[in-house]
Amino acid sequence: MSKSIVVYYSQTGNTKKVAQAIHKGISQTGGQCDLARLKDVEPQELTGYDLIGLGSPSIHARELPNVTAFINHMELLDGKHAFSFCTHGVSPGFYISRTVSALISRGLIVIGWNDWFGAAWHPLLPKPYFTDGHPDEIDLKEAEDFGREMAERSRRIYQGETELIPTLPKGKEYDEIYRPIHEVPQHFQRLLNRVEFKINKDKCHYPKCTYCMDNCPTGAIDLSMDPPMFDRGCDLCWLCEQTCPSGAIEIDYEPLAREHVPLTEGDLMRSSKLFEAKGRFRRLVPLEDIGWDTNYWTFKKPRFKIDY
To answer: Degrees (nearest 5) of the Cα angle 31, 36, 39?
Structure first.
């Protein structure tokens, strides 16, 4: 009897919903299937599984460092099966190519991958946003079907149908499907490099509250230091500033927003229309309702609650 696991990292709950649906689909095929948060799984303990699914949000057009580290700490799993999945606000970017290649490097046979649009809660993006409302019931039914497909494909490959193992698209073929952004303009990258996270000590409840430290995906925060440290391990996912229960973490978003909106407005519009034309994106928010004048960073904090 086969044994599977779906491992996920989620921030807003989008990836959690998709992971639950995939788990549901695999479970319908018989055999044992576990569902676990990334932080609750020791990567060295996956040797007992025949099929491993791994998913997270795509941020900065790739996986977060905690996902990379998780894969790198796996034992060599020669001959075991795996699949990759992600949620994203406009494009999976390089997430698929990076995670599939990393899983293969651990000896896994990657039998599939998929991506889903999800409501975006990025501070520099407009609100309402293009993908708000996703993943919806249709998306989650697709995720359930994908889970069932992965379980059935895995079974058949183990029985010898190796022609079912897919080949990862590369180069222009990959770009045509996933439309990754290849380069961040240097002037905007310089602004990002100068981002400072500041703690309003009148609002911070450390050591009673360690919410930001506990939930930082890179372990970059140390409030015990004076001044508090947000070290170079920070991946600028903005999670701490957006979700701090007391709003104690502060960032000067105005200079970033002045550069980011004109930089992304045209590209986001083109990408959403392109994916819509290809039948990969169902628009739930009319274009005229996109909140170009209401970047999410202007909303009251905490802007959302972490939902693993």
So the answer is: 150
- Mean pLDDT across the stretch 199-210? 95
Predicted structure pTM score: 0.95
The residue segments making up the domain with residue 245 are: 196-250
Distances (CA, A) of 113 to 81, 87, 125, 143, 228: 12, 12, 27, 11, 39
One domain, residues 69 and 121: yes
Using pLDDT thresholds of 50, 70 and 90, give the confidence band for residue 180: confident
Query: Which residue type sits at 164?
Result: L
pLDDT attached to residue 131: 96
Residue 106 covered by a domain: yes
57, 118 Cβ separation under 8 angstroms? yes
Please say if the pLDDT value at position 187 is more than 80: no
Residues 83 and 212 in one domain: no
Q: With respect to residue 214, please indicate whether it lies within any of the assigned structural domains.
A: yes
